[in-house]
## 1
Amino acid sequence: MAKTSEVKVDTATAPSAKAPAKQRAKNKRVVKRAKRKARAKRGPGKRYSKAEKAKIMAAAKKGNMTGAEAAKKFGISTLTFYRWRGPVRGKRAAKRGPGRPRGTGRVSVNEAEVRRAVQEQIRKILPRIIKEEVTALLGD
């Protein structure tokens, strides 16, 4: 009878059906960890002076760029681009017309006047409604 030899297989390096999934999960963890470290090193972010902002916005306007195009060209985020552009757009909108008046958005209403106006409208249409209903019931 032949003696079988035992072969030790290192399960960490041995190929298996689950290896690709495990490797992908490991790669994801590695990438996530690297991004986290990069964010920690980067700090709060670059601060741009008013002159730099104006220069970037002028170039973007001249080139008729979208937020994504400006972000790629100047190395800023699209959110930053649109945040900077916001006040510029607001000034342009102000030139077009008055728009919504500034304030709290609340309108003061005299309840007594509103009540009086509603009652007056009801007095005007109620007789007609009553007449139509009575006519419909009696089948005249």
## 2
Amino acid sequence: MFQRPIATRTKTLVLVTAWIALALAACSRRGGTEYFPQARIGSRFEYSVAYSAAGSGAHKARMVSSVTGRATVNGQRYYKIVSVFSGLPGLGEQIQYLRWTREGVYEADAAGKDPPEYLDTPFPISIGSTWLAQSPGGRTRYKAMGTETVTVGGRTYRNCLKLAFAQQLPDGVNQGTSYSAPNIGMVMLMLHTDNGVDMTFTLDKYKR
């Protein structure tokens, strides 16, 4: 079975769970925000995960992300998104806190007491937009590449926003591509880590 140190594997999936959280998130009337649809408590997204590394072969896992309620962090009201993994040894649930303003989506990491927030996704977003998200654990550079049709989980999603990203962490760089469908959120994410791990997340079903 594929094994990595728990701390390293957790860092790799921080970006993933942040994107899933945004898939359960809010939408304003400004450009591009239809790819981050309105949060509803009780929303649930289920993903198949395929991952591999040199010499380990291919493996399968699952991730379920849900909006479980609201929370107050440093005086601000956030949506609480919980992601639970199965088939990834040593990885427990991941929690994000997100809130939306006209300027964009802010995140506060769940780790630690009174975590600082940062702007993860600025509005508006248009094709060619680039931005840098600086979190306590590293920084991620994004670029909106265009729109494409994506078929996953037996469904076809049209006009999906394609984002390329590079995540700089203390122990390396992760790169990948995500696809988000209008009024649904993320339907597919492909991630490659600098230590040779490849992961693909595909949406199986969702409840809004």
## 3
Amino acid sequence: MKRSALAAALVLACLSAQAAADAPAQSASARIVGKWTWTRPDIKCVETQEYRADGTLSVVSGAERSSNTYVLASEATANGFHKLTVKIVKDSGGKDCFDIDQDHTGATVTHYVMIHPNGDKLMLCHEDSKDRCIGPYQRDKQ
């Protein structure tokens, strides 16, 4: 009786492990959802980006606040980045963490995003490479 209970437990453990291994990986769009924070070290300016599942994005960068929409490519580039296209719906102006004080309402910008495999860090790059990047942004655990 003990052997059959042990065997059944072993089979269930193996099936559970196989089901976890067979589960599809979470999409990049699902992984980016949440609040991410980066601090510019030289001036201690904080930028927070909050990606929502409905495709909207709120950014607070220094004194600037903006409301945006975004589209994140589902497929990664050959370099492992996901193309992120952001449309700035409303920019309140104010100096941001990059010392820019302009209203960018209506502009569309393209970035390339790489999310760390454990999901707690994000790099935001200007091109499909690690040459010109900001970050890492840290996921807000709240």
## 4
Amino acid sequence: MAETVHPLSDLPLPTLGAPSPHLAGTEFELRLLYYAAEPEDSLVTIHFIGTYAMRWGPPNDERRGELGLAKLNRPSEIRGSTWLAGLIRAGQLESGGEEDCGLSHFCLPFHDSTLDVAADGYTFERRRAPIHEEFPDLARKLVK
């Protein structure tokens, strides 16, 4: 099955300039905080439910275009994911395939990096507090 990109239209777009993504996590839970494009100065917190794996790094926005990944210009779900299939093949998931394991591959493109998460799902909310106040709250939610 070929990879297909399905935009997550419910998730707000990261700001183009400096979305300042911050991550906090445990072995099975991941929370993300970033600046949204609209409304200006609003924050988005995403709670990935049943997190199995994540990777964060390249490509950045310019390299995504060079690699033909221009469709990854907003938060998306990648169906038929080769990354998720690789996790399954490596024996890290006891399942017959991507559909059977209940996980989805979520991709969040930022200006300087890309975050990929294999999880059961997510919830999100918008916030207005400054990022230096919001991030400690995000981390506290992980230990409760």
